[in-house]
Amino acid sequence: MTEVIRSAEALREKVAGWKRAGALVGVVPTMGALHDGHLSLAREARKQSDRVIVTIFVNPMQFNNPEDLKKYPRDEAHDLALLEADGVDVLFAPGPEEVYPDGFASKVTVSGVSEPMEGAFRPGHFDGVATVVTKLFGMTQAGRAFFGEKDWQQVQVVQRLVRDLNIPTRIIPCPTIREDDGLAMSSRNVRLTAAERAVAPALHREMQAAAAAIRGGTAPDAALGAAREAILAAGFASVEYLDLRDAETLQTATSLDRPARLLAAAALGEVRLIDNIAV
Ligand code: PAF
C-alpha cells in the first residue's frame, strides 16, 4: 500500500519513525503524469534505499509560461496506482499552500550552470526548481534523491545546489528512458498530436547523427548547423538551442578533451521537447 501524505508535518513524523529504525530514505521528486522514466527512478530508489518517497507537486514557481502550467497533465489517481504497483512507500502530494504558504518570501538561485539554455529560454525556471527541490529535501529528509538525466541541466543545477548549501542528500542521476523510436519519455509527450508524435523522434535521431559527425572529426558548428536544418525539415517549428557543452560546467565545448554533451530544446506544435546525449 502506498500511503498518500499531503502535509509536511505528517511526512516529518513518518520519516522520523523510519529513521529511528535506521532506514535510508530515498526520494524521487516529480510533477506527476508518471511514465516509465519516472518508474525507473522509483525502482532505482527501491534498490538503493530502505524506504521510498515519490513526490508529486506541479510547481508553479518553475513555470515561466502560465499556459504551460495550465496545460501540464495531471492524473493523481493513475499515478498512485502505478506507484502502488511498484511498492513505493509514500506518495507526498502537497497542495500549493503547503509548499508556498502565505508570506513565503524566499528564493534559491544557483548561478553559472543554470544560466544558459533552459535558463536563457525559460527565465526564472531554475530559481523555481532550486527553491522547490531545496524545500522537498528539507521536507523529506532523504539521504538519496533520484533524478532523470533527460533533464541534464537540472541535474547539474541540483548537484551544485547540494554542494554549495551542504545539503546532506546524495544526488543519483539515472539514464534517460526512451520509446522504441528513440523519443525521450516526458510527461509532455501526451500533448503531441499523432502527426507530431511521428515527427518527434527526429530530434534524437539528428542529435545522434551530429554527435557521430563530431566524434568523426567534423567541426561542431558544421555538425550542429546540419542537425538544426534537418530537425526543422522534419517538421519542428523551431530549434531553441542545440549546443555542444562541457558535461559538468555546461560551458560551450569546442573540442572533446573533456566529457561533452549535446543538449537541445525544440518546439513541435505547442509542445517544447528537450533532449541530451553524450558525445
Ligand atoms: O523534473 C521535474 O519534474 C521537476 O523539475 C522537479 C525536479 C520535480 C522539481 O519540481
UniProtKB/TrEMBL annotation:
Its EC number is 6.3.2.1. ATP binds at residues 31-38, 148-151, 177, 185-188. The active site is at H38 (proton donor). The keyword GTP-binding does not apply. CDD domains: PanC. GO terms for molecular function: ligase activity. It is an enzyme of class 6 (ligase). It catalyses: (R)-pantoate + beta-alanine + ATP = (R)-pantothenate + AMP + diphosphate + H(+). Keywords: ATP-binding, Cytoplasm, Ligase, Nucleotide-binding, Pantothenate biosynthesis. Pathway: Cofactor biosynthesis; (R)-pantothenate biosynthesis; (R)-pantothenate from (R)-pantoate and beta-alanine: step 1/1. It is found in: Cytoplasm. Beta-alanine binds at Q62. The reaction proceeds by a bi uni uni bi ping pong mechanism. PANTHER family: CYTIDYLATE KINASE/PANTOATE-BETA-ALANINE LIGASE, PANTOATE--BETA-ALANINE LIGASE. Homodimer. Belongs to the pantothenate synthetase family. Catalyzes the condensation of pantoate with beta-alanine in an ATP-dependent reaction via a pantoyl-adenylate intermediate. This is Pantothenate synthetase. The lineage of its organism: Bacteria, Pseudomonadati, Pseudomonadota, Alphaproteobacteria, Rhodobacterales.
